[in-house]
Amino acid sequence: MPNTPDPTRVHPTTRPELTNVAFLSTVVSSPLIEVGEFTYYDDPQGAAEFETRNVLYNCGPAKLRIGRFCALATGVRFIMPAANHPMIGCSTYPFTLFGGDWAEATLDIAAALPGKGDTVVGNDVWIGRDATVMPGVRIGDGAVIATGAVVTSDIPAYGIAGGNPARVIRRRFYDADVALLQRIAWWNWPIPTITEHVRTIMAGDPKQLADIARREGLLAD
Description:
Elements: E1 21-23, E2 33-35, E3 40-42, H1 50-53, E4 55-56, E5 64-66, E6 71-72, E7 77-79, H2 100-112, E8 119-121, E9 126-127, E10 132-133, E11 138-139, E12 144-145, E13 150-151, E14 159-162, E15 167-171, H3 175-184, H4 191-196, H5 198-203, H6 206-215
Parallel strand pairs: 2-5, 3-6, 4-7, 5-8, 6-9, 7-10, 8-11, 9-12, 10-13, 12-14
Antiparallel strand pairs: 1-3, 14-15
Helix pairs in contact: 3-6
């Protein structure tokens, strides 16, 4: 029998002592949050509470979309668009929020405010401890976000970004290899294939991974 983690269980079945790690696809319930299999959040204070503690101001219509095989460290936060205040006039005070006469007089203004769209995190993304991702940001496949970074703008695939506001420090691979890795998309392979070639996925180079993908019929030239 294969000995690999069960993505339908909250904690890794292969390491039951890792109660600080939760597969997020098993614990999120909001229709505004979509998370791919094997993406995990690590927090000894309650990883399974990610939806309520780490996704802030999540009252739509924008969604948080996170791909497969992402690693989120303790304290990672996603600020959703509902946190934004209006800046089109004299005051930034959110009068509409409080209902009553204030809301009745300003609801059309609030509804017309420009939105930033969904917040999207690709596949195989590593986000470091206490990083904050702002509304509408898109983080590409294979990116790395440094500890404490505040991500206010898009980060390209396989970019390494840090700082406040976060800036791309360098790319993990040359552009041609980035394009190849996105075509390979190992995170979409069948789990038995990932398991068989996990050493190359973890420590090989893009060309080695491409050779495997071709042999498995998972990459066409």
